[in-house]
Amino acid sequence: MSRIIDTGLEELSATLHKMGELAYHTVLAAITECIENRQAYGEIREMSDALLSMADHVEDKAFELIARFQPVASDLRTIKSYMKIAYDFARFGRYALDMSYTNQKLGGIRNCGGWIISHIKEMSEKTLEIIDLSITSLRSHNAQLAEKAAQTEKEIDKMYFDFLEKLTEKADVTTKCTVSSVLVVRYLERIADHATYICEAIIYIATGRKVVLR
Amino acid sequence: MAKVDIRKLNVWFKENHVLKDVTLTIKENAVTAIMGPSGCGKSTLLRAINRMNETIDGCRTTGEIYIDGQNIYDGSIDVYELRRRVGMVFQKPNPLPKSIFENVAFGLKIHKMADGQKLAEFVEKSLKEAALWEEVKDRLNESAFSLSGGQQQRLCIARALAVNPEIILLDEPCSALDPIATQKIETLIRELAEKYTVIIVTHNVQQAARVSDYVAFLYLGKLIEYGPTKRVFENPENELTERYLTGEFG
Q1: Strands B222-228 and B214-219
Q2: ipTM of the assembly?
Q3: Is the CATH number 3.60.21.10 carried by domain B2-93+164-245?
Q4: What pTM was estimated for this model as a whole?
Q5: Considering only residues 186 to 245 of chain B, which have any Cβ-Cβ distance to chain A shorter than 8 Å?
Q6: Structurally, how many domains does chain A consist of?
Q7: Looking at residue A121, which CATH number applies to its domain?
Q8: Is residue A213 in some structural domain?
Q9: How far is Cα of residue A182 from the mean position of the Cα atoms in its chain?
Q10: According to the model, what pLDDT value does residue A107 have?
């Protein structure tokens, strides 16, 4: 027999799954805009706003469940983690919007050197991979899968620092390219961090262990 | 620091084996909640700590309970003195058919602990500790039955405190009270823990979460889990505790 609180938990879970999909598409749109020079700021802004509003909804619903049912044990861990995950998904949207804004103001990276574009492409693929990992772990509350984020996050961090190092060594990169590419890789790196936080939250829900994967 | 050390405690009521090898250390100046579904042995465990089970026909107890290192099941123990040191408050308020003052003074008189002005001082002190003094100071000679249910329960707590106990046992003290009276008792329980070791039996898991520092979960007479309330309520180690706390059974 299902409990009264289960209906609320299922509603939270459904909202988070929608947020995950939307967050993935928002980041993908920002990456595509940046690399292919599409104009997608308006669309990304709408998706980012929708993510923020869904995160507010998750927070309201979570507070309602806490007030009405005083959850404990795995219910409490789930609600606490869902609030955190909703915030992380909203941050995906915010960083995607920042990428899009950089693209709009500085012209993106389309005129930058080939190595910059290929580095950012590679880093973008890894970032989308870790987002996908966080969403898949969330769907099944799979702690083992979530733990795999640690390795991908390390790879993305390394890509970020390698990029900065290479950029400082190259004298032929324009200021615009330097600024826009640094911002883009920084946003990708931050998105990957938030995907890792989501994976940490999944491990907490599933096992009660508080881990730091970064 | 440990105040009560329960070791391999078994209690039978005739053929019914109610507590099975319970081993538990209860800390001093803390609130320990004992929770579990109906019939799991919560009240029996509580009543073992001041040997109240012995008043029931067919009760047999094995194992040891140490209070400050002394086994209370040792033959040399004075049971009346033990029950002074380990006060008890029951599920339903049970004031004596006497005045408010006499209810609190009762234990002091039978233990010959005070009389005259000293008695009045002790009564006032106990009523203050039970957070009842302000509400009754002008009507001490009225019948205890004139008080509300919540006030009667605090009077019973004052009566237990009057004889200067070290441990207070509370057996579902709020189950007959409304939410406001319950809140007052819960606040009082937290205050009492500054001076006394408090052990409370409750079937209300949210109450255990609110008032206790440590929590013990009993199931079918066995101690399933014991630990700091925060840890047990956030991340129980035992699957049965998890299922009980989340309402899967109870």
Answers
A1: antiparallel
A2: 0.70
A3: no
A4: 0.82
A5: 205-206, 209, 233-236, 241-242, 245
A6: 1
A7: 1.20.58.220
A8: no
A9: 18
A10: 81
Q: List Cα–Cα distances, A130 to A162, A183, B59, B163, in angstroms.
A: 19, 19, 63, 65
Task: Give the domain extent around A23.
Answer: 4-207
Of B159, B160, B165, nearest to B102 (Cα)?
Answer: B159
Cβ-defined contact of A73 to B245 (cutoff 8 Å): yes
Each residue of B36-68: pLDDT tens digit?
A: 999 999 999 999 999 999 999 999 999 999 999
pLDDT at A19: 98
Strand partners, B131: none
- In this predicted structure, the answer to whether residue B32 has a pLDDT above a threshold of 80 is yes
Which residue in chain B has the smallest CA separation from A75? Answer: B246
Tokens 């983690």 belong to A81
Token pair of A94 as six digits? 């915010």
Q: Is A178 exposed, middle or buried (0-12, 13-18, 19+ CB in 10 A)?
A: middle
- The angle subtended at Cα A134 by Cα A130 and Cα A140, nearest 5°, is 145
State the CB neighbour count (10 A cutoff) for residue B145: 12
Output Rg (C-alpha) for chain A, integer angstroms.
18
